[in-house]
Amino acid sequence: MKLCRVFSFFLITAVLAMVSCKERPVGPEPETFDKEAMLLQIGGSVIQPAYADWKAKTEALRTAYVGFDVEKSEENFLNLREKFLAAYEAWQACSVFELGPAADQNLRLLMNTFPTDTAQMEANLASGSYDLGAAANSDARGFPAIDYLLFGRGNSAETAADLSSAANFSLRYLDDNIQIMFNGANVVSEDWNDYLTEFKTNTASSVGSPISVLVNEINFEFELFKNARIGIPLGKKTLGVTQVAKLEAYYSDDSKTMALANLSGIKSAFTGGTGLGLDDYLDAIDAQYNGQKLSEAIIDGFEKIETELANVSSLRTAIESNPSSLEPTYHAIEQLVVLLKTDLPSQLGVQITYQDNDGD
Amino acid sequence: MEISRWFKQITLAKVSIAPLVTFRVFFGAIMFVSILRFWLNGWIEIQFIQPILHFKYFGFAWLPEPSAWGYYALFALLAFSALGIALGAFYRWSAVAFFLAFTYIELIDVSYYLNHYYFVSLVALIMIFLPAHKSLSVDVWRGKTIKTLKVNALSINILKFQLALVYVFAGIAKLNADWLFEAMPLAIWLPAQDQLPFVGSLFQYKATAYAFSWAGAIYDLTIPFFLLFGRTRWMAYAAVVVFHLLTWSLFQIGMFPFIMMGATLIFFSADFHSWLQRPFVGLNKTSTLDETSALNGFKWVHLPVAAFMLFQLTFPFRHLLYEGNMFWHEQGYRFGWRVMLMEKAGYAQFKIEDKDGRTMEVRNADFLTPVQEKMMSTQPDLMIQYAHFLKAYYQSEGISAEGVYASVYVTMNGQSSRLFIDSKVNLAEQIDGWKAKPWILAHKS
After folding, report:
1. A24 to chain B: which residues are within 8 Å by CB?
2. Looking at residue B303, what is its pLDDT?
3. What is the phi/psi pair of residue B67, to 5°?
4. In 3D, which of B127, B121, B118, B145 has the Cα closest to residue B85?
5. Which one of B374, B375, B408 makes the best mutation probe of the A interface by having the most chain A beta carbons within 10 Å?
6. A23 Cβ under 8 Å from any chain B Cβ
7. Could you give the number of structural domains in chain A?
8. Into how many domains does chain B fold?
9. Fewer beta carbons within 10 Å, N or C terminal of chain B?
């Protein structure tokens, strides 16, 4: 009976400790953080507006295309280029959100696989028979393909003339690519109307939950930013030998605008724009980084990159003439990637895989 | 002579075979389910066939890797031998096959190390030598072995020892400052689960994490003893069920909770197990009974059994031979029953340097699966292996990869991420071994 009593004591102590904490929390009363409100903010006030903007700009691009098709003037051609760059920039704010409806469509792969395979594109343009949905054409379609088509095949007069000629398939290739974007933007915007409820109500941190996927996609996109947008063109994967043609939006020389828009998209995914975001979630659980709020350290990290990048006039010119001028930018990126890959997921307790796990 | 009497009592005394039979059936059955689950989850493909490289266990780099079909054949063998164990069919062969195949697969890739895989390997090894098929088995029914009602007490006590060891060591591992005084890592893990029904609303309170931490430590340290004594057994078993169901609902811990809930039934009395088996008693009606066979040739086993137990009692403590915080440097961490003890995340940027001093960065995802990358990013011995792999890979690509360096940042139990290893050390020149790795930076807290 004695043993029995000892055991009961342990059990009761444990249970009491668990129950009593409801009345007497150790330390200050925790702020109950409303994860559903955070997800609603991110989904409804960041992601949906980003898609809506991209969709509107894609429609404007299509209108510009139709305008050019009707009257192949230089003015209409320049308008077409302008509307394309606006749509490309709008896409950058969406790129990080490869979850739910976007993941269903493989949107990132569909829209923005760069660098574009110019040989494949030329072959497609020459033959006029191609399936843009095929895997072989994954790097011959979407924004990078149009970037090449509108900016990479001669000056504006030559390109306009090429697109005006009935003797080749350039105009059709442009049309087909705009159609892919138009469809993608419409389907994903539409699907998000239904998906929002599912997105905001699942507040778990387990694998596949919106919070976990969001954190993982922030990391994935930021890694693309570090490697594909800056590192690889800068020669970080090729012993310092620069690969300038691998820049995103290389032909339009608009890489910096795209990179800044992309970074801003990742930042919004973290901050939730002007409302509740992962930064507030980190504050609610009192996440610290070397005596500072972790949320602030991460936002500082984003701002440092923005500041460094703003000092560069054009990524293409910088890489071609003075690659070392990008080192401060790259260094700032390296600093932020550590916080996003270690402190952020660890403090939030999000899982990365489905596999069994008995510790870390 | 009290001790010697007691020793005889727990080893040589004739006791009912019933608990052993339940254990055999349960163990075989849950292993069969586990193998099936692994297979149906597609993990054979994801964990074994797809990866470009496998991280070897120290001392087992020589083990050949099976082909894709080899893996499927091995898993099929595992499934059949698990069934063989459960049914007591071709028992010795089944037990030997299961132990060898399971351990072989486990030894393929250290980044998948789980304490419960190690536990399964050990139990499978023990099972080979137990007369667990001598009642209620296909082997008795086929007349291949003679039915036995009594076995040596050691046959059952060795399993109790193994289970008690897991709990007590898991409990000892919890006796550290982070666990007891910071409630880490539960203070991170529990609030992340506050959407769970009933208990979830308690998880935002730090006190809950403390209560769970202390209750968990006390549970692990004491539960084997409460299970041993008849008077506390039922209540202790209720605690076992509650504890493991809770860990199962909170963590991605796989089959482990169910393995432990089933295995701890071994602590129950022979009467309980006989009662449990009553519906099946008719299956092995036989007039011949062997009262002695299981007891014959028993003397010689004392030495290996003692060695086995001594190894198990000491090996988890080898971390004491290394300076610094074991949770940080992880030297001597594995095979120590350290389960769900820390929240750790790392980021490892590897750099290749050629003979002209030019550098390039490595994208880990090009070579590693997400799990492998996660494990490698916090475990120094895996960093060495990866560095050797990278050197060989880039040299085969025509790059004179003279140096492989890594800038690694790790966060542990919610502390700020910090540099983990000396980023000026050429990892390709390091050889893994028992010796302490001086290039792991000290953990200052």
Report:
1. 207
2. 87
3. -75, 175
4. B127
5. B374
6. no
7. 2
8. 2
9. N
| ipTM here | 0.91
**Predicted confidence band of residue A34 (pLDDT cuts 50, 70, 90):** very high
The type of residue at B438 is P
Specify if A14 maps to a domain.
Answer: no
Map residue B411 onto helix, strand or coil: strand
Residue B197: how many other CB atoms lie within 10 Å: 7
**Taking CB atoms and an 8 Å limit, are B232 and A4 in contact across chains?**
yes
Cα–Cα–Cα angle for A248, A110, A86, rounded to 5 degrees: 50
Whether A172 is covered by a domain: the verdict is yes
Mean pLDDT computed over A299-306: 98
| Residue A32: band (very low, low, confident or very high) from pLDDT cuts 50, 70, 90 | confident
- Token pair 């659980």 is found at A285
Angle between helices A142-151 and A118-127 (to 10 degrees): 80
In degrees and rounded to multiples of 5, residue B430 shows phi and psi of -85, 145
Q: Is A149 found in the same domain as A93?
A: yes
Closest CA to B151 of B19, B262, B265: B19
Of A203, A231, A257, the position where a domain reaches its end is A203
User: What are the percentages of helix, strand and coil residues in chain B, rounded to 5?
Assistant: 60, 10, 35
Task: Report how far residue B242's alpha carbon sits from residue B248's, in angstroms, rounded to the nearest whole number.
Answer: 10
Task: Classify residue B51: in a domain, yes or no.
Answer: yes
In this structure, what DSSP letter does residue B343 have?
-
A11/B contact by beta carbon, under 8 A: yes
Asked if residues B334 and A351 have their Cβ atoms less than 8 Å apart, the reply is no
Closest residue in chain A to residue B348, using alpha carbons only: A338
Q: Please tell me the distance from the alpha carbon of residue A178 to that of residue B127, in angstroms, as a whole number.
A: 66
Q: How many CB pairs under 8 A join A and B?
A: 179
| Domain-located, residue A331 | yes
Domain co-membership, A148 together with A246:
no
What CA–CA distance (Å, rounded) separates B427 from B430?
Answer: 5
Helix, coil or strand: residue B16: strand
Same domain, A139 and A197: yes
Contact between A346 and B354 using a beta-carbon 8 Å cutoff: no
Give Cα separations from A296 to A39, A100, A217, A325 (angstroms).
20, 28, 20, 27
Which tokens hold the place of A163? 């697109």
Report if residue B234 sits inside a domain.
no
What is the pLDDT, as a whole number, of residue A29? 47
Q: Judge if the upstream peptide bond of residue B185 is cis by omega within 30 degrees of 0.
A: yes
* B377, B408 contact by CB (below 8 A): yes
- For residues A136-163, give the mean pLDDT: 93
* Cα A265 from Cα A259, distance rounded (Å): 10
Is there a contact between A21 and B204 if contact means CB atoms under 8 Å apart?
no
Residue B361 identity (one-letter amino acid): E
- In this structure, the answer to whether residues B158 and B44 fall within a common structural domain is yes
> Would strands B14-16 and B150-152 be described as parallel, antiparallel, or unpaired?
antiparallel
CB-CB under 8 Å, B399 with A239: yes
Chain A positions touching B111 (Cβ under 8 A) are: none
On whether both A72 and A177 belong to a single domain, the answer is: yes
Residues of B in contact with A343 (CB under 8 A): 345, 411, 416-417
Enumerate residue ranges in chain B where pLDDT < 70: 1, 285-300, 445
Same domain, residue pair B365 and B296:
no
pLDDT for position B288? 62
CB contact under 8 A, B207 and A24: yes
Q: Show the domain range for B362.
A: 343-429
Residue B435 CA, distance from chain mean position = 24
Q: Both B277 and B418 in a single domain?
A: no
Task: Report how far residue B15's alpha carbon sits from residue B2's, in angstroms, rounded to the nearest whole number.
Answer: 20
